[in-house]
Design goal:
Length: 334
């Protein structure tokens, strides 16, 4: 039977774990964090029976979020991490399952807690920066690349290995060297499991031949997965790959509308309402379209419009436009 209104409150007062959890989640949704915290703490305090184990695990995870993020209380990252660690070290296989739709499964809670611990060690949130610890927790959460693992952890491992990282907060020069092959492996794993940022990342690695053999067709396939969701950067990079494959008409069809902006060009020059990702996407699209119009590739040559689009690319994102100009001068772009 559904627990509603006074029945729910009565059961919660009587210490019923299901009622306490439902009430706590409702209070959390309504941003009544203090009272939600009390409900979750009551579940943890009472959760001694095996049948209460999953309720207690859910409550500990919620308390971790509340304490770590300072929701309705003073931020206590260390206390939040203690709750996450309790959840992360739980053997999900021995936690009794439940049909209660208000409960998150033990497997999901454990991998999410492990991911949160890895993030804390990576960013120095409540604990000193410790890349080895971050990697260790993320590897546990990633579940060896399984779809049941944390896709965020798989993506984070790719990012961790892709660039030089500070090993500690004390010494900014103590860096961990990149491992591009490991980065490619984890980006591809996360992409297979549905991460759009990872799909874009592995596409760029195939495009440049970093960590994997250069393969523009593989790059195109992965970038298409990002672009098909409406991702602007994915669309722009797909346009660029079509251009590199000398499929110029497809390049123009894929991204020409990205060269247009709502309102006048003054919007480009303001930082108010255009994100860094949109800047990069529009700069790529403007540059590629300009290149096609300048050279008459896949369309009729139009030098005047090409100049306008080159200027627009620089106005939107000078760094991206400069990099593309260098690639063109080096012969890497048609």
């Amino acid at each position: 039977a559904k627990m509603e209104g006074t029945d729910l409150e009565a059961l919660a007062r009587a210490g019923n774990s299901a009622a306490l959890l439902k009430q706590g989640c409702r209070l959390l949704e309504n941003k009544n964090y203090g009272e939600a915290r009390t409900q979750f703490m009551l579940i943890v305090a009472a959760g001694t029976r095996p049948t209460d184990a999953l309720y207690s695990l859910n409550a500990k995870f919620m308390l971790g979020l509340i304490e770590f993020n300072g929701l309705g209380c003073e931020t206590d990252r260390l206390k939040g991490l203690h709750y996450f660690k309790e959840v992360a070290q739980t053997d999900a296989a021995v936690v009794p399952k439940s049909n209660n739709p208000d409960l998150t499964g033990a497997d999901t809670l454990v991998v999410n807690a492990q991911y949160n611990l890895g993030r804390a060690y990576r960013e120095g949130l409540g604990v000193p920066i410790d890349l080895a610890a971050a990697e260790r927790w993320w590897l546990l959460a990633a579940r060896d690349g399984s779809a049941a693992g944390s896709v965020d952890a798989q993506l984070s491992l790719g990012l961790l290995f892709a660039t030089a990282q500070r090993k500690s907060a004390e010494d900014p020069l103590d860096l961990q060297a990149p491992d591009i092959k490991k980065a490619a492996r984890w980006f591809q794993t996360a992409a297979v499991n549905g991460s759009l940022p990872a799909a874009r990342a592995i596409a760029l690695m195939y495009k440049k031949g970093e960590g994997v053999a250069k393969d523009l067709n593989a790059a195109l396939n992965w970038m298409r997965k990002a672009a098909d969701t409406g991702d602007l950067q994915g669309r722009a990079h797909m346009m660029l790959i079509y251009h590199q494959l000398r499929l110029h008409k497809l390049a123009l069809e894929t991204g020409f509308e990205l060269t247009e902006l709502a309102g006048d060009d003054d919007r480009i020059l303001s930082n108010a309402d255009i994100t860094d990702g949109e800047r990069e996407a529009r700069a790529i699209a403007c540059f590629v379209a300009a290149r096609c119009l300048d050279k008459g590739l896949g369309t009729t040559a139009d030098a005047a419009t090409a100049v306008k689009l080159y200027k627009r690319a620089v106005a939107v994102d000078k760094t991206t436009a400069t990099q593309l100009r260098r690639e063109a001068e080096a012969g890497d772009l048609p």
